[in-house]
Write a structure and sequence with these properties.
The complex is a heterodimer. By secondary structure, chain A is of the alpha+beta class. Helices cover 70% and strands 12% of the residues of chain A. By secondary structure, chain B is an alpha+beta fold. The chains are: A alpha+beta, B alpha+beta.
Chain lengths: 114, 156
């Protein structure tokens, strides 16, 4: 169970921070450079870059470097990932119950035949 | 005590299994039988501890292909009602020791049914969010809602 949750850890961590949420909201209106994104925050660039890296690693954004300017773009897949997580858990439990049912009914029939 | 499900976080699977309750209970509580259905092939499950009493340790391992066994569930039983109910969580370890990470409380119930056994597995999931941060942004509880609202916000 823990295994299937692993990709989501970073996704949720992203949302737990106000700076990162603000970056996501800003990127919703279109790609932006690191400089533009950092401007509203009273924060040293290395600290801000940690947030950018976290968002990129978690899959919320993509970054691309053109010359000296790094541009960030919103990535939609993390939204889909969070939406589908409960469905995935449901599938795991459904399949697990299928296997229990298969196991119990087959072994029960064998016992009954003896 | 009955589990209350939060539709944003929890799930419940119910199935009528055409076998007596003793057979279903046995498949759950006998480690050798449990190992045969808990994880999908080709993964292999190994039960390290299954101390079926409140506070009893529940530890399983999983092996995928040629890799070594790695921890799968590390938790403890909260309630064990003979042939009726098993509740476990990974929020606590054996002896009720708090766990590092928690993810789920599972409530397994079995009852007699004209066609065999009615089996229900409910999984209650922790809200991984920091609730205060949620409220700060005006999000309602639940990640489904959070992501929908965020998606609407960024797409506006």
């Amino acid at each position: 169970m823990a295994k299937s949750l692993a990709p989501l850890d970073g996704v949720f961590q992203s949302l737990a921070d106000p700076t990162r949420r603000a970056v996501l909201v800003r990127l919703g209106s279109g790609p932006a450079s690191i400089g533009e994104l950092a401007a509203p925050f009273d924060m040293a660039l290395p600290s801000f870059m940690k947030h950018i890296h976290q968002l990129e690693t978690a899959g919320w954004i993509r970054t691309r470097k053109d010359g000296r300017v790094r541009t960030c773009t919103l990535e939609r897949k993390s939204f889909d990932l969070v939406e589908s997580w409960l469905d995935e858990q449901r599938a795991i439990w459904n399949e697990r119950t299928d296997r229990l049912e298969g196991f119990v009914t087959s072994t029960h029939e064998e016992e009954g035949a003896e | 005590m009955t589990a209350t499900l939060n539709p944003e976080l929890d799930l419940s699977v119910t199935r009528v299994i055409r076998a007596p309750r003793a057979a279903v209970w046995g498949a759950w509580t006998d480690p050798e039988r449990f190992e045969q259905w808990w994880v999908p092939a080709p993964q292999i499950c190994r039960v390290r501890e299954m101390d079926l009493r409140p506070g009893g340790s529940f530890r399983t391992e999983i092996r995928d292909g040629a890799a070594e066994f790695s921890p799968h569930i590390s938790g403890c039983f909260l309630a064990v009602d003979d042939h009726e109910r098993i509740v476990f969580t990974d929020a606590l370890l054996g002896g009720w020791r708090p766990a590092e990470a928690s993810f789920v409380t599972a409530v397994i119930t079995m009852s007699d049914h004209p066609d065999g056994t009615e089996y229900t597995a409910a999984a209650l999931h922790r809200n991984v969010a920091d609730r205060d941060k949620h409220e700060e942004l005006g999000f309602q509880e639940g990640w489904g809602t959070v992501t929908r609202q965020l998606a609407e916000l960024v797409e506006a």
